[in-house]
Structure formats: C-alpha cells, structure tokens
C-alpha cells in the first residue's frame, strides 16, 4: 500500500471519529434538526482545516420566509417629482419603510388621512400601517417656499415704490429748474 492510500485511510478514520463526536455533541442541542456530514480534503502538500463549519440551507424554511415577505410587499409604486404613491396590505402595529430620504417638507397620507411619518435612524421614511389595505401617498413641498415668495414679493414692491418715488422726485426737480 502506498503512502497516499495510507494517508487517505487515516483521513477517513479521523473524519469518521470526528463525525461521531460532532454528531453526539450536536444531538444535545435541541434546536438541531439536520444531520452532520464530514467533507475530507486531500492535497499533495497537505491542507489543514481547523474548526471550519459548513451549513446547508433548508429550502422549505426559505420558501416559507419568502412567502411571508411577499405577502406584505408593496405594489403599484409610483415615484415622480416630489410625489410617491403605493399600496400595501398591512397589520396594525407594523410600519412601511420607504427608501425615501427624510426631510421636513414631506407630507404623508394613509387611506386619504394625514399621518405623521416616522424615520429609521433619522434618514428614511416609515409610515405606520393599519389592518387591511393601506393606500400611501407622500407629497413633498419645499419648506418655507410660500414665506420666501411673500418676502420676495414685498421686497420687489418696496424697490418699485422707491424707484417710482425717485423718478417722481427727479421729474419735479427738473420742472422746478425750468
């Protein structure tokens, strides 16, 4: 028997012993539902693995989780210039997180009623949901735009009045000089 064959047999024996020990330890864990498998790697120069673990994915559990996520997914999403609308089936106590950056100008409606949006870490908008269908509408208005327009219009009026007064004053001076 050559050295490579002997080494393979030693590896297989070590793997079987490791399997028995790991399986016995794993069965003590009540949450464990799978099985333990050993993978043996062999190279010419020798490969050393210490305490590596490989996990398998339970596809049934993944499908169940994906189904729960899909049940609450948003539909009919429309995003255009400062206006976001969407629909979602919700449950009281849950929230819809929209990846829309938060700013003071956002106004939120849920089922045509004004709601106070919340934020996630002060950055993204969340809307509290109610049981059943939730029609969400967000509208953005530039903060203090009206006030800024009023101030600008008042300043323009003052400038026009001042210009008119100067023109009238200059005209009176020219008439008096004649």
Structure, explained:
- This protein is α+β, with helices and mostly antiparallel strands and 178 residues long.
- It is 40% helix and 26% strand.
- It has 3 helices and 8 strands.
- The strands form 2 sheets. It has a 5-stranded antiparallel sheet, with no helix packed on it. It has a 3-stranded antiparallel sheet with strand order 3-7-6, with no helix packed on it.
- The longest helix is centred in the last third of the chain and has 33 residues.
- The radius of gyration is 36 Å and the shape is elongated.
Largest sheet: 5 strands, antiparallel
Main sheet: strand order: 1-2-8-4-5
Secondary structure tally, helices: 3
Low-confidence stretches: none
Helical fraction equals 40-55%
Approximate shape:
elongated
Overall pLDDT score: 79
Number of DSSP strand runs:
8
Order of helices and strands: HHEEEEEEEEH
Q: What separation lies between the terminal Cα atoms?
A: 132 Å
What percent strand?
25-35%
- Rg is 36 Å
SSE-based structural type: alpha+beta
Layout of helices and strands, plus pairs?
Elements: H1 3-28, H2 59-71, E1 75-80, E2 83-90, E3 95-101, E4 106-110, E5 113-115, E6 118-120, E7 124-128, E8 132-140, H3 145-177
Antiparallel strand pairs: 1-2, 2-8, 3-7, 4-5, 4-8, 6-7
Please sum up the structure shown:
The protein is an alpha+beta fold. The protein is built from three helices and eight strands.
Give keywords.
single chain; 178 residues; alpha+beta; five-stranded antiparallel sheet; three-stranded antiparallel sheet; 3 helices; 8 strands; 26% strand; elongated
């Amino acid at each position: 028997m050559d050295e490579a064959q002997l080494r393979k047999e030693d590896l297989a024996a070590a793997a079987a012993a490791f399997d028995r020990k790991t399986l016995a330890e794993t069965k003590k864990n009540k949450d464990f539902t799978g099985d333990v498998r050993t993978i043996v790697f062999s190279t010419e120069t020798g490969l050393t693995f210490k305490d590596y673990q490989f996990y398998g994915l339970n596809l049934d559990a993944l499908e169940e989780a994906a189904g729960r996520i899909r049940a609450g997914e948003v539909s009919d999403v429309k995003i255009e210039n400062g206006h976001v609308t969407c629909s979602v089936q919700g449950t009281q106590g849950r929230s819809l997180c929209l990846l829309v950056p938060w700013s003071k100008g956002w106004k939120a409606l849920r089922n045509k009623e004004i709601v106070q949006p919340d934020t996630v870490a002060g950055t993204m908008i969340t809307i509290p949901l109610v049981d059943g269908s939730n029609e969400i509408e967000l509208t953005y208005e530039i903060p203090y735009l009206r006030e800024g327009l009023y101030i600008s219009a008042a300043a323009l009026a003052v400038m026009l009045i001042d210009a008119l007064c100067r023109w009238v004053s200059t005209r009176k001076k020219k008439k008096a000089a004649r």
